[in-house]
Design goal:
- 2 copies of one chain form a homodimer.
- Chain A has a domain of about 210 residues: 3-Layer(aba) Sandwich (Rossmann fold).
- Helices cover about 35% and strands about 15% of the residues of chain A.
- In chain A, strand 7, helix 5 and strand 8 form a beta-alpha-beta unit.
- At the A-B interface, helix 4, helix 5, strand 8, helix 6 and helix 12 of A face helix 4, helix 5, strand 8, helix 6 and helix 12 of B.
Chain lengths: ~400, ~400
């Protein structure tokens, strides 16, 4: 089997640094640490990136994908809008605020980014089926990408997910299996399945393809920097589910500095959780270095991972950069969704309510400098979590089509 | 009041050619024909367009907007994906098929394009409130754009719309008035309201701002041509609600030819309706030049306009270009939504089911050449019309998290 992962040349253990050949493996044989892609980057210029396509493949020389990736059948996500959020900024008292709005991706969440990379890994390894454990968004991203790529799909979700996420995970034609349990139980089940003959030739995007998949989140860092005019933000607020996205955005920023694509400068990374699933925030506030698993209970289902694999790394990054980890309650999430909608015309899913809510809380607590360039992520779409705004899911008034009737209601 | 509409210099009557100063007017005083923007275009090159932003403002020199439009608070829609649809093409027996997927717009329908232009017109005329009659998508686009632009919003919809569209029209904070009646009744009510003192200083995007608003649909033509490598498609399938979008795509193609941005060549325009609201298709098949209004009864609510204002122009364009107008039943719409999802990973709303269903019907009837470059439009998002796919809105199976349980269901 001839593999083509572009600039990625090996897998390396994030804990002990042991190196492995590129393959569908995810845990270090020495220390059980997580493996991630290791690169030998060639020269990359701002100009060639700018001349690339309006999707994540403009950064293909920084990703574990073949050089001809834009010719393949792929969803081609990314290059979503970085919205200059003057309305929200004014409301919160922030001078220079941007919303990175990933609801513009093909299946309307940032998951399209990571799945796009996993599809190329699945092709490289000759897998016929794409699979995942998912809190909802990932299931839709995987089944859509599999449909486009001509792969089979079989995805696993907690059975109690939002209706819209279930429909979106099913309409693309793959198998959708509801598991009677939490996301963490779904995840454990998938790890078992990999060892079973059924799971042979299956690419579980967030298990045995994870070292490739996770790299997709780096593209958020690249896009934010490029869209700011090749400059890192001073402060960034990122949601925490497994914590992977946050660690990869940090990795992306560091790569851009190392490659000379942006000036080296300090930036503060803030992690955002829902109070009903806030193991990382709890650990951060207690000064712990490890994360105590919890059983999630929050409307922010896309962030409801009670045992976040990358929790310790998130704690490390928040502390190292001078950021923080904070959490907000379900009512604060709903309030933040509405604030973002009313000030920016952006309808975020609950995860976006979490980041905007945490941003608000950090500003109010003086933990974030209102004078500095700040980016807040919206990673999903409000249409997928309509229950969160059910209080406004009806007309202001219903009338007969007459001016008299209208005058009575305004 | 100093107006700045960029290259647009007047309004002109589409029927009699009478010219008027730019203003919030929409009907010819001579013959009651519809007014549209008239331009004096300067030089426009492919290079300067390519150097523009990844949204409709890359074409600002062809639109009735100020030259500094990209500095304003606007949703900045457009530059959505033109997906090379090899999967769907293979399934239908088409050699070269593309899906223009406008679900990637900020509120996930093509309406963001037209509203973006209307916002600039409202600003020009000093209006404080943005309004519309809507079958759903437009209401969300207007309220979002008003939120971003700092305008008030008050929008009108038939009270029986899909839940997702109602939520999306309300979450951005404007007033949402449900009218107990059809879209055509909502529309007539809005025309009354314009003459009333309440409606003074209101910009009804699809009534008194219509000559500007409607021009936004031209950007679909520009983008398709540019994304094809500055080439017109041979055949294009476009949904018909009022018919405005179809006429403006034709206008856009003709402008590109006149400006020398693409080579002159024939192209065939096909209109698509739902059988439950198919007045234009009926007229086309009967050889009529006028359209008999109908009372809509279809799941394709975003196309449910029983008295389409631009119907006669659509008939003319379909006949002149050698295209056709066709319609599909509600079951055919659902089947087409699923086919598009399963072959391309694109989840279309019912309007996209209409265009893909009509495409299939035209191919099967031999009315469309399978060898030629064909573009089919998806103008909205499946998340807004979930009821259409309710038959698949559940997991394939729900199981306990065990391999034994899984073996039993696969």
């Amino acid at each position: 089997m001839s593999l083509d992962f572009g600039p990625a040349v090996a897998l390396s253990c994030r804990e002990c640094g042991a190196r492995y050949d590129l393959g569908p493996s995810f845990a270090c044989l020495e220390c059980f640490g997580p493996l991630e892609a290791a690169y030998e980057f060639g020269t990359v210029t701002r100009e060639e990136i700018a001349a690339g396509p309006a999707n994540i493949w403009r950064y293909k020389k920084l990703l574990p994908v073949p050089g001809d990736v834009e010719q393949k059948r792929n969803m081609n996500p990314g290059w979503t809008k970085l919205v200059k959020a003057e309305g929200l900024g004014k409301s919160l008292g922030l001078k220079s605020l941007y919303v990175k709005d990933d609801s513009g991706n093909p299946t309307h969440s940032f998951k399209d980014r990571v799945v796009a990379i996993a599809v190329e890994a699945a092709r490289n390894f000759g897998f016929h089926t794409l699979s995942c454990s998912s809190t909802g968004n990932l299931a839709g991203a995987v089944t859509a990408a599999a449909a486009r790529a001509g792969l089979e799909a079989c995805v696993f979700i907690p059975a109690d997910l939002e209706q819209a996420k279930i429909a979106m995970a099913r309409v693309f034609g793959g198998k959708l299996i509801g598991i009677d349990g939490t996301y963490d139980e779904v995840n454990r089940f998938c790890s078992e399945l990999i060892g079973d003959p059924i799971g042979e030739k299956w690419g579980f995007v967030n298990v045995n393809l994870r070292p490739y998949y996770a790299e997709g989140s780096k593209t958020l860092a690249y896009e934010i920097a490029e869209q700011l005019g090749w400059r890192l933000p001073d402060q960034i607020v990122i949601p925490i589910a497994s914590g992977s996205q946050l660690t990869k955005i940090d990795k992306g920023f560091k790569e851009l500095i190392a490659l000379g694509l942006v000036d080296d400068k300090p930036y503060k990374v803030y992690g955002a959780q829902a109070t009903g699933c806030s193991p990382v925030s709890v650990a951060y506030k207690a000064g712990h270095e490890v994360v105590q698993p919890v059983k999630p209970d929050t409307i922010a289902k896309s962030l409801a991972i009670g045992n976040p694999a990358d929790g310790p790394y998130v704690l490390d990054i928040a502390r190292r950069t001078g950021g923080a980890v904070e959490d907000v309650s379900d009512p604060e999430i709903v309030s933040a969704i509405r604030l973002l909608a009313e000030t920016e015309g952006i309808f975020a899913e609950t995860a976006g309510g979490v980041t905007v809510g945490v941003l608000r809380k950090l500003v109010e607590a003086g933990k974030l400098d209102p004078e500095l360039d700040t980016v807040v992520l919206n990673t999903g779409d409000g249409l997928k979590t309509l229950d969160a705004v059910s209080s406004v899911a009806a007309p202001s008034a219903v009338i007969k089509p007459s001016l008299d009737a209208f005058r009575k209601v305004i």
